[in-house]
Design a protein that fits this description.
The complex is a heterodimer of chains A (307) and B (448). Helix content of chain A is 67%, strand content 0%. Chain A is an all-alpha fold and 307 residues long. In chain A, helix 3 packs across helix 8 and helix 3 packs antiparallel against helix 10. The longest helix of chain A has 31 residues. In chain B, helix 8 packs across helix 9 and helix 12 packs parallel to helix 13. Chain B is globular, with a radius of gyration of 25 Å. Chain B has 448 residues and is an alpha+beta fold. In chain B, the strands form 4 sheets. Chain B has a 5-stranded mixed β-sheet. A 5-stranded mixed β-sheet of chain B has the order 9-10-11-8-12. A two-stranded antiparallel sheet of chain B has the order 4-5. Chain B has 2 domains: 174 residues, 3-Layer(aba) Sandwich (D-Maltodextrin-Binding Protein, domain 2), CATH 3.40.190.10; 207 residues, Periplasmic binding protein-like II (D-Maltodextrin-Binding Protein, domain 2, 3-Layer(aba) Sandwich). Classes of the chains: A mainly alpha (307), B alpha+beta (448). Chains A and B meet through helix 1, helix 5 and helix 12 of A and helix 1, helix 3, strand 10, helix 15 and helix 16 of B.
């Protein structure tokens, strides 16, 4: 076979380098995916040996499952709200703390701290704060003459979940802060010397310079937010498996529905079909964001595709 | 492969796909085949999946000392992990589970028939088992008869009430009878009198029904108390549009609308009545005998609590057990004989006696009943109430085709809608019937 180009290292080095990743991908990603697909073609209940192949019946049922479809729409709506808010919030906080302030290190720590508190502790704290009868939130509102609000039930529970999610945006703030500190000061100064307003400097200099980091935040945010399951469960009434049944409708996201079918109804086959469809949905959203990045992400170096 | 051969993308992808497919197939087959577990050095390692709180280190050490050939490997109970272990054919040797709802586990062929062991045992004898153990019996079609597939650890008359006499005194409400059941409608009326509101917030709840724990238990009980049936003969269909079912469901709607107690529309922060009752912010809680264990160390509260019989809806007294935690041995357990030894030790040996003396639940064995605590006045009063209630124990209906959790989710969803006036009680009962029947049909298809 003809060889084009030249080779500096023996071919086996290639395999040695990619080997660990390929092995990890095969056994921890590809194999579980295929396994889940196989399970999705069965009526497996998660433990009993009495399962059988049922073809694509689970998929057919899923396309007529109104609860699952409603959960999917709700999840997309939740993502559309949370991702922009968390990206904008973390960028706003980062800009606020990227200035020469007194005790700036202290404030950075204060805003970062919630993101390293374990989610379970954060959820319990918010459940106590938002409890209708004994929570501090209603006590404070009561002072202002506002009637108690049932924060943890429909329809307000959705906003309680948003608050819980945004509580940890300090993590994103640190990444944004690092990006902002990488923006060359001379570029912003040059723009200002040329008469650009503060907004124009931000819009036309700062934002393009940090756009790869914003893109990273958006794409990881979309993927993780679509898959959220723990937070709605923790905000619900108790913490056992049956909790999933007590998750309010407004916070019943797609993965909550999947969890319910897996562990409450023992429908591992149907749950696997739900996961496969969701995998394709997430893939589609990821590709959409990736495609859109060509329009708004600025790289300081040319990508291979642009050469 | 020649190390200097050019890399073919197709070959790499083909090889990767083949490897992934192989790995997936191995996993799938692994789910069907038995794995392995066992001991070393002549000692059997018994894998016990229990809640660590239920199996203290002292009990493990005591069991191992009395059974030198057995070493216990304790796994903290985790339903997801248990599922995975069962699916892979490598389950623990013994694990915990509730008697009520065990029909589903048994119909799926997961639990070992313990009858041969029981017949040979000199420690655990059938005639000594409390009737609550009948919920673990399964004859291939229904519970209550046939082979034993588990032994109850401890249990409770879960519909019985505990109440705070100080809060009754404050509201000038007479105490509940120790021997006569309170009618459910009367109980709701009492709860309204006991509820204290301040600025739109509830300062004292009149009645807690442990909404987050189970709705199926009390609703099924109410239907039984009216002399009606929940399921059809072969447990494949339900009908909640009957007058008895609508009355039971309607009571919960009234309860939710009245705001006298926590519901999923006004949940407690910890989802349990215990902390609210202990803080004297709840006058009555429907929590069963076991709840008395909470007051042993609370000297102040123990002087103000009393137990009352299970309330009634209709003419037939029924004081059921909603759960009855126990232990069972998976069919594919590797060390069944050793697991049975552990079962004997745990259910009839020193741990059982310690549990009985603690008052955290009623013992599974008749012979252990006298061990229940009667040192404090409230313990003595609760003991006498519990003794009288024993005669009204009846098993809750249990279809193999649905789990109790499946019931609870469906009931809660439609109760919420009815409480919020989004649907009538009749419409809600019709919807519950449709949805439960769908779940039953799915379960029947899976189990066959």
């Amino acid at each position: 076979m003809a060889r084009n180009g030249w080779s500096r290292y023996p071919r086996r080095h290639f395999y040695l380098f990619v080997g660990p990743w390929v092995a990890g991908f095969l056994f921890l990603t590809a194999a579980p995916l295929l396994y889940a697909f196989a399970v999705s073609l069965t009526n497996f209940d998660g433990s009993s040996p009495r399962w059988r192949w049922i073809g694509f019946r689970n998929y057919v049922e899923l396309f007529g499952d109104q609860a699952a479809q409603a959960a999917l729409v709700r999840t997309i709506g939740y993502t559309a709200m949370v991702v922009p808010l968390s990206v904008a919030g973390s960028l706003g906080l980062a800009m606020l703390l990227n200035r020469r302030l007194k005790a700036v290190g202290f404030w950075r720590t204060v805003f970062f701290l919630p993101s390293i508190v374990p989610m379970v502790a954060t959820a319990i704290m918010w459940k106590l704060i938002l409890n209708r009868d004994s929570g501090i939130m209603n006590a404070v509102l009561g002072v202002a003459g506002i009637r108690p609000i049932s924060w943890l039930v429909d329809p307000v529970a959705f906003y309680a979940l948003v608050i819980l999610t945004l509580w940890g945006l300090g993590g994103g703030m640190v990444i944004m802060l690092a990006a902002l500190q990488g923006v060359p000061a001379e570029l912003e100064e040059a723009a200002r010397v040329d008469g650009a307003s503060r907004w124009s400097v931000f819009r036309h200099v700062t934002l393009p310079m940090i756009s790869p980091v914003v893109y990273f935040q958006v794409i990881t945010g979309v993927i993780t937010t679509l898959q959220i399951v723990i937070q709605p469960l923790l905000l619900a009434e108790t913490s056992s498996i049956s909790t999933v049944g007590q998750v309010p409708q407004s916070t019943r996201l797609y993965m909550v529905q999947v969890y319910q079918d897996f562990f409450l109804h023992n429908r591992f086959g149907y749950g696997s079909a739900m996961l496969w469809v969701f995998f394709l949905v997430i893939l589609a959203f990821t590709l959409l964001v990736q495609r859109s990045s060509r329009l708004w992400v600025h790289y300081e170096v040319d990508s291979d595709a642009d050469r | 492969m020649n190390g200097s051969e050019p890399i073919s993308r197709r070959r790499l992808l083909t090889g990767a796909a083949a490897a992934a497919g192989g790995a997936a197939a191995t996993s799938l087959l692994g789910a069907c085949n038995a794995g392995s577990s066992g001991g070393s050095g002549g000692k059997v390692t018994l894998t016990v999946m229990f809640s660590a709180a239920d199996l203290p280190k002292e009990s493990i050490a005591d069991f191992e000392a009395k059974n030198p050939g057995i070493k216990i490997n304790l796994l903290e109970f985790d339903a997801t992990r248990l599922n995975a272990m069962l699916a892979s054919g490598n389950p623990p040797d013994i694990t915990i589970g509730a008697a009520v709802g065990s029909a589903n586990t048994n119909a799926r062929g997961l639990a070992t028939d313990l009858t041969p062991y029981l017949e040979k045992s000199r420690v655990l004898r059938k005639e000594d088992l409390q009737p609550v153990n009948n919920s673990f019996r399964w004859d291939g079609r229904r519970i209550g008869q046939g082979a034993y597939h588990g032994i109850v650890k401890d249990w409770s008359q879960d519909a019985t009430l505990w109440y705070n006499t100080a809060l009754f005194d404050q509201a000038k409400v007479p105490y509940l009878s120790d021997s006569q059941p309170t009618d459910y409608d009367e109980l709701l009326a009492i709860a309204k009198r006991l509820t204290v509101r301040q600025g739109g917030r509830t300062k004292v709840f009149g009645l807690g029904v442990e909404w987050a724990w189970t709705l199926y238990g009390p609703i099924a009980t109410m239907i039984l108390q009216q002399g009606a049936q929940l399921y059809n003969g072969d447990l494949t269909e339900v009908d909640l549009t009957t007058a008895a079912a609508r009355r039971a469901f309607g009571w919960f709607v009234d309860f939710g609308r009245s705001g006298v107690g926590p519901t999923s529309l006004n949940p407690l922060p910890d989802g349990s009545d215990q902390s609210t009752f202990s803080a004297e912010r709840m006058a009555i809680t429907q929590d069963g005998y076991f709840f008395g264990g909470n007051f042993v160390k609370d000297k102040a509260l123990s002087g103000r609590v009393r137990m009352a019989p299970a309330p009634i809806m209709g003419d037939k007294r029924v004081s059921p057990c909603y759960s009855g935690q126990g232990a069972w041995i998976p069919v594919k357990a590797k060390h069944k004989d050793e697991a049975w030894k552990f079962m004997e030790y745990y259910m009839a040996g020193p741990p059982a006696e310690t549990r009985a003396k603690s008052g955290w639940g009623l013992p599974s064995l008749k012979s252990l009943l006298p061990k229940l605590p009667q040192d404090l006045p409230y313990q003595k009063q609760a003991y006498s109430v519990a003794q009288r209630e024993l005669q009204y124990l009846a098993p809750l209906p249990d279809s193999p085709y649905i789990t109790v959790d499946g019931w609870n989710v469906t009931l809660d969803k439609h109760l919420q809608r009815a409480i919020k006036n989004q649907q009538s009680v009749d419409a809600a009962c019709a919807s519950v019937t449709t949805e439960i029947n769908r779940l039953l049909k799915q379960g029947k298809e899976r189990i066959g």
